[in-house]
Amino acid sequence: MKYPSGLIVFDMDSTLIGIECIDEIARLNDCYTKVAEITKAAMEGKIDFSESLRQRVACLQGVSESSLQRLFNPIPLHPGAQELFAELKEKGWRRAIVSGGFTWFADRLAAELQADAVVANQLEVKDGQLTGRVVGDIVDAKIKAQSLQDLANQWGIPMSKTVAVGDGANDAMMLENAAVGIAYCAKPSLKRIADYCIEEPDLCQVLTCLSHSKLL
Question: 3-class secondary structure for the chain?
Fold first, then answer.
C-alpha cells in the first residue's frame, strides 16, 4: 500500500470559494446587512464563532432549500482551485475541506474538486425550508483543529506532513496545529500566526508555499 504524501485541509468560504455562503443566503431572506456584520466580527475574532453562527443561521429561517442552488451555479471557485487540487492529487496528497460553513455547499464543492473528506455544519431543513437551526455540534475552531488531527490519524499521516489553509480567526487553531499554516487573503489576526501568507487570489500559490517548506 502506498501511503499518502501528506494531508492538506482547506477552509471553504473566502478560501476555496469567493463568497461567504451564509451572507449570500441572507440576501435571499433580506437580512444580509445584519448577518454580514456578525460574520465580519466572527472572522476578526471579536465574538465567539459558535454563538455567532447560531445568531446568523436563525436569520435564515424560511429560505427554501431549492433557492440555494442559484448561489452555487456555477460554483464560485477562487482562481487556481481546480489546478491546485489536481496537482496535489497527482502527487499523492489527501485533500480535505474543513469548514465552519455548511455541508450543502461543501459536499458539492468536494465533488467538484475531488476532495477526500468534508467536515462542515449541517443546516436543518423541514418541508423544503431552512428552520434557522444547525443539526448537531457546530464546527468551530476547536473542531476544525481536531478534524485535522483525526484525518491525519485516519490516513496514517504524521502531523509533520500536514498543512492547513484558511482566511479567518476560526482557522487559527487549525493552522497552528498543522506543520505548515497558510493564510490565504486572510484577516490580520490569522496572518500573525501563519507560516506563509498569500495576498493574491490565486490558490496555485499554495504549491509555492509547499515547495518552500520542503513538503512538496
Answer: CCCCCEEEEECCECCCECCCHHHHHHHHCCCHHHHHHHHHHHHCCCCCHHHHHHHHHHCCCCCEHHHHHHHHCCCCECCCHHHHHHHHHHCCEEEEEEEEEEHHHHHHHHHHHCCCEEEEEEEEEECCEEEEEEECCCCCHHHHHHHHHHHHHHCCCCHHHEEEEECCHHHHHHHHHCCEEEEECCCHHHHCCCCEEECCCCCCHHHHHHHHCCCC
Q: For the segment 9-50, what is each residue's pLDDT rounded down to a tens digit? A: 999 999 999 999 999 999 999 999 999 899 888 878 888 889
**Domain coordinates in residue numbering, the chain:** 6-210
Q: Which residues pair with 6 in a beta bridge?
A: 93
Cell readout for 63 is 429560505
CATH code of the region 6-210 = 3.40.50.1000
Residues belonging to the active site: 11, 13
Q: Answer whether 0.90 is exceeded by the pTM.
A: yes
Per the omega criterion (within 30 degrees of 0), is the bond before 158 cis?
no
pLDDT digits (tens, 9 = 90+) for 77-106: 999 999 999 999 999 999 999 999 999 999
